[in-house]
Amino acid sequence: MKRIADIPASVETTYLGDPQRAADGLVAQYDAGTASEWAEEGFCAAHEGSAGLDSARVTFSLAQEVPEEGKVASIFKEYRMAKAALAGIKVGVLYFECSSGNFASGAGATVLVRGEVRSRYETSEAEGAARKDTLRVVYEASRALSKLLGCKSNAGLPSSFSMPPEV
Q1: Residue pLDDT, tens place only, 71-115
Q2: What angle do CA 147, 51, 138 make, to 5 degrees?
Q3: Rounded CA gap, 22 and 16, in Å?
Q4: Helix-, strand-, coil-residue percentages of the chain, each rounded to 5
Q5: Closest CA to 131 of 74, 87, 77
Q6: Which ranges of the chain would DSSP assign to H, the alpha helix?
Q7: What does the pLDDT look like over 120-135, one tens digit per residue?
Q8: Residue 128 to residues 1, 8, 17, 91: CA-CA distances in angstroms?
Q9: How far is residue 150's CA from residue 146's CA, in Å, rounded to a whole number?
């Protein structure tokens, strides 16, 4: 997260977040029928120093559909991971399906989850390295969220990160 937010390694960084609350929030949204891609649940954030605006943050929401292949914003490159993976220099997005007994008041359901990492600032990294970092951060957070949600088969996410091929 420090690299995508262009925070020097020597600078104090504060990490804030409540991953369990984010997972619980997604379940509550689904069960209440209020799920929306725009109703984001905060997962974690990195702050340069100890206060102020977040430099980078990870959020999750429930989506209705995956963006159509080849029809995403020009800032992204598309990759083959989970249902869809999009990586930009300041933003990474990962869509994955979660089948879990935690949804539908314990009856279980399959939902489409959208994870996003976003940096407030430009990075000094090379474009390819920045895309890899944004995708890695949203992948790692998605793996952690899938465990908290109790997704079957780790929501189809690979057991470890390696840069997937472009679409």
Answers
A1: 888 889 999 999 999 999 999 999 999 999 999 999 999 999 999
A2: 30
A3: 12
A4: 25, 30, 45
A5: 87
A6: 19-32, 127-149
A7: 998 999 999 999 999 9
A8: 16, 19, 28, 13
A9: 6
